[in-house]
Amino acid sequence: MSKADKYKDKVVLADCLSKLKKIDDNIFDHCITDPPYNISGYDNKKEIGWYKSNNVWKGDKKFLKINENWDNFSDKEYFDFCYEWISEITRVVKLNGNIMIFGSYHNIYKIGFILELLGLKIVNSLIWYKRNAFPNITQRMFCESTEQIIWAVNNSKAKAKNWTFNYKVMKELTPNKKQMRNMWDIPMTSIKEKTYGKHPSQKPLEVLGRLILGCTNADELIIDPFCGSGTTAVSAKINGRHYYIIDRNKEYIELTKKRLKSTIIQLPHSL
Ligand SMILES: C[S@@+](CC[C@H](N)C(=O)[O-])C[C@H]1O[C@@H](n2cnc3c(N)ncnc32)[C@H](O)[C@@H]1O
């Protein structure tokens, strides 16, 4: 039994920082994660913008905007928190493993800055274009319709090498069999992916499927320290990879377990 085997296909209820600190070095092949974006709490600070939209979206249309205590930090707290968990991730992921982190304009520059401070090689930033994103009714800005994923390699710019990228698999997924570009037009998570319950920031399986098929190999072990409803693990299972995922919210862990139980491995590759 290898050191990594004891981490395979585990769903862990814990605070990720304390859990990560107990994990040995160089265990995971890759990290794919969607951390808190620090966008909660804003509405109550200023009675403008989203606060007005909320009356329509939360009241009339029953839209759930994120306002969670796990997503509410001061700028400094958020930076320090991210610095700490990303540093731990660079320790527990193998050299030259992929580290892929979701964000929006609210947090992605901080995440990118931290990856730069840690000296990691950044390969791409991927744009997830949500053509059906909620309209912005404040008329004070463009309608925000994208999220980003920064793809870094767990090594320095000078030394990074042999990172996983399944070029041909990605090419096959495009309609005209041309190179896959870094802007992905994928609708927001559909209701049918929420059969077992709702999470306020559940990501679509298609986005995770592309990351997993494109940037990891079969049987590899992926860590997600902020698993939410478990989309990373569900996609890993569908595509024949292993997962080790953490969330500190019991309700989300239960939801993840239900999703995983109903998931079947679909090989050869499937999204
Ligand atoms: C953006 S959500 C992830 C959503 C996920 N990608 C999905 O598709 O459902 C972030 C998650 O991080 C969890 N979280 C926040 N802080 C945490 C911490 N310190 N340790 C573990 N989990 C944490 C929250 O409970 C939340 O479910």
CATH uppermost class: Alpha Beta
Number of domains: 1
Q: Using the 3D structure, state the CATH architecture.
A: 3-Layer(aba) Sandwich
CATH superfamily: Vaccinia Virus protein VP39
**Cofactors and ligands:** S-adenosylmethionine
Segments where pLDDT lies below 50 for 5+ residues? none
What's the helical proportion of residues? 25-40%
SSE order, one letter for each helix or strand: EHEHHHEHEEHEHEHEH
Number of strands: 8
Please, what is the average pLDDT? 92
- What is the helix tally? 9
Main pleated-sheet profile: 8 strands, mixed
Helix/strand structural class? alpha/beta
User: What radius of gyration results from the CA coordinates?
Assistant: 18 Å
What share of the residues does DSSP label as strand, in percent? 15-25%
Silhouette = globular
What is the rounded distance between the termini?
A: 30 Å
Short précis:
The protein is of the alpha/beta class. The protein has helices at 16-21, 42-45, 50-60, 75-92, 108-117, 167-172, 205-215, 231-238, 250-261, and strands spanning 10-13, 30-33, 98-103, 120-129, 146-156, 183-185, 221-224, 242-247.
Question: Any descriptors?
Answer:
single chain; 271 residues; alpha/beta; Rossmann fold; 8-stranded mixed β-sheet; 8 strands; 32% helix; 18% strand; binds S-adenosylmethionine
Descriptive notes:
It is a single chain. The protein is α/β, with parallel strands linked by helices. It has a single domain (about 5-40, about 75-260), classed as Rossmann fold (3-Layer(aba) Sandwich), CATH 3.40.50. About 30% of the residues lie in helices and about 20% in strands. It has helices at about 15-20, 40-45, 50-60, 75-90, 110-115, 165-170, 205-215, 230-240, 250-260, and strands at about 10-15, 30-35, 100-105, 120-130, 145-155, 185, 220-225, 240-245. It has an eight-stranded mixed sheet with strand order 1-8-7-2-3-5-4-6. Strand 7, helix 8 and strand 8 form a beta-alpha-beta unit. Helix 4 (about 75-90) crosses helix 5 (about 110-115) and helix 7 (about 205-215) crosses helix 8 (about 230-240). The radius of gyration is 18 Å and the shape is globular. The mean pLDDT is about 90. S-adenosylmethionine (SAM) binds next to helix 1 and strand 8. S-adenosylmethionine (SAM) binds near residues 17, 247 and 249.
